[in-house]
C-alpha cells in the first residue's frame, strides 16, 4: 500500500466523539487553529448512538442538538419517598450523539479552518516540529497527517493504576407507553427502589421525552458487569413493577460502561501529542459525568493554544479528584450506604449548590459544609487511609463512550 501525505493543519483531532468534536469546534470557531478531525468510516468501527447528559445554565454552544431539558430533578430514596428539587438556574439536558455529530460536522464544513477525514487512525507519534498521524483510508491507502499538535480521544487499552476502580454500567430502553405515564418536566436522576446488589449500588433513571415516551435505565455502580440478559431482567422489573408503566413498547436500547476510578490519567502522550476525553481524565470519577467537563476542557485547551502554551490543563481540579477518591473508596469498602448517601446529599443540600459541587465549581467553604452533611466518621477514616493505599492495574472495562 502506498503512503501519501495529506497536507498539514495546526491540529489533528483523533476521534469524533464528544471530546474530539467539542475541541475541534472550539478551536475552529474561535480561530485559534486549523483542525483536521479523523473519524472512522461507517461500519463496525463507529460506535452506536449514545446519550450524553449534563446540567448547564442558559443556552450553550450546542443547543440545536439538545433533545430535551428538565427544570426539576427527582430522587427516590430506598424507603420509596420521592424528593423533587428545582435546580434553577440550572437545567438538566440530554444530547443524542447523532444529532451532536450532525451539528458539529455541518459547522466544520462551513468553517474555512475545519476539515473532516473519514479514515481509521493508526500510529500517532512525535516528529520534528510537531506530530504525525498515520491513517488508513476506506480504499486501503495509507495517509499521513502532519500537524503542530495531535489531540487523541481514543479509549485507552488499559486503565492507569488506581487505588479504587468501580464501573458505572447500565442498559436503557427508549419506551413508548400506551397511555401518559411521564411528567416531561421531571427527570428521575436516581431511583433506589430497585433491588440492591451485594456489592455497590443500583438505581433506576428516567428521562421523559413526552408524556408517553422516555429513556428508562437500570444502572449499577459495582466492580463487575452484568450479562445483557441480567440487564434486561432488571429493566423489566423496574419498568413493570416499580414504575408500573402498563403496556409499553421498546423502540430502541442502549448499553454502556463508564470507569469510575481514581487513576491518574496522563494528559501527554508525547511532546506534541495529548489525550482528551475519558482517555485524558475528563470523566468525573465519582459520578461518571463527562460531557460538561469536556466543554470546559475544550475552552481551556483553546485558551492555552491561543496564548502559545504547549500544555494541556487538567479537566478537573485536584480538590475535586481528592474528594472523589475518598467517596469511591468509601463506596467500594461498604463503609457508607450508597443509596442513603446520595439521597442524603439531595435532602440536605440546596440543589443549585449540589449541582455546582458535582460539577466541581464550589468553593472550599461550600465543600466543607457539604462534607459535614455526609457520614463524617466513615468518610474521615477513608480520607486518612486513601493516601497510603497502593495503586493497582485494572483492565479497561470496554470501548464504549460515556453516557453522562
Automatic annotation (TrEMBL):
The keyword Isomerase applies. It is an enzyme of class 5 (isomerase). Its EC number is 5.5.1.19. It comes from the Bacteria. InterPro entries: FAD/NAD-bd_sf. One of its GO terms (molecular function) is isomerase activity. This is Lycopene beta-cyclase.
